[in-house]
Design a protein that fits this description.
Blueprint lengths: L2 H7 L14 H12 L10 E6 L2 H8 L6 H6 L2 E8 L2 H9 L4 H12 L4 H25 L3 E5 L4 H8 L4 E10 L19 H4 L4
Antiparallel strand pairs: 1-2, 2-4, 3-4
The structure holds flavin mononucleotide.
The site of flavin mononucleotide (FMN) has 11 residues, from strand 3.
């Protein structure tokens, strides 16, 4: 299937079929795909927690507002985290890069604009991996839902990944055949191509 057709088919699934589980092999493939996600100057300021343990998943579901039901119905929840400590990030992630990338890009164009800018830039890299991940799920025939509607403070406490702050989560599974949000029931709503694409 072409990428355009996949883009038309994928959607933020609201109701999953709890009888259809994704396999261990698919989970391992998704882990490898995320590890290969691109990032600015290959900075990789992230961690991805794959939650399959039913007890932990249920605790997280209870901290996920309107997303609770969806999390309870799938066997995989992936939590995307960003590194918290800028100094540690520079030492661990940037010191191994070609020096010119750090002195020619990171220092003058990111760091020079202040700590808030560095943090926002680091988070942007994690969001980029989300787009990559959602496309990979579609390619693998899996349904997925990105979720910012989660209690970040409680997620951090439950997952206890030292030095990493959760940003959002993604459920992965198979949609219920009657899901009201399926594009067959709820056509995709987007601005017109001419409103979002400029051709010069
Ligand atoms: C970063 C991000 C956070 C989102 N958070 C939620 C969420 O918490 N719950 C939910 O049901 N959908 C969530 N969505 C799904 C969007 O509402 C959905 O992608 C958008 O309405 C477009 O619909 P489509 O993905 O089905 O084409 C989120 C999407 C993104 C990209």
């Amino acid at each position: 299937m072409s990428f355009l057709d996949l883009a038309k088919r994928r959607y933020a699934t609201k109701n999953y079929d709890p009888t259809k589980k994704i396999s261990v092999e698919q989970i391992e493939e998704l882990k490898q795909i995320l590890t290969l996600s691109p990032s600015s100057i290959n900075s990789q300021p992230w961690k991805f927690t794959f939650v399959t343990d039913p007890e932990t998943k249920s605790k997280l579901a209870a901290q996920s507002y309107m997303n609770e039901n969806s999390i309870n119905k799938v066997n995989l929840l992936v939590v995307f985290h960003v590194m918290e400590d800028i100094e540690h990030f520079e030492k661990r992630n940037l010191s191994i890069l070609p020096e010119a990338w750090v002195s020619g890009f990171y220092e003058p164009l990111v760091k020079a604009n202040g700590r808030a800018n560095v943090k926002a830039w680091m988070q942007s890299q994690v969001y980029l991996s989300l787009g990559y991940f959602l496309s990979a799920c579609a390619h693998m025939g899996l349904d997925a839902t990105p979720m910012e509607g989660i209690n970040l403070k409680m997620y951090k406490e439950i997952l206890s990944q030292d030095g990493y702050a959760p940003l959002f989560a993604v459920t992965v599974g198979y949609a219920d055949a009657d899901d009201w949000a399926h594009p067959g029931n709820l056509p995709k709503s987007r601005f017109a191509l001419d409103d979002v694409i400029a051709s010069i």
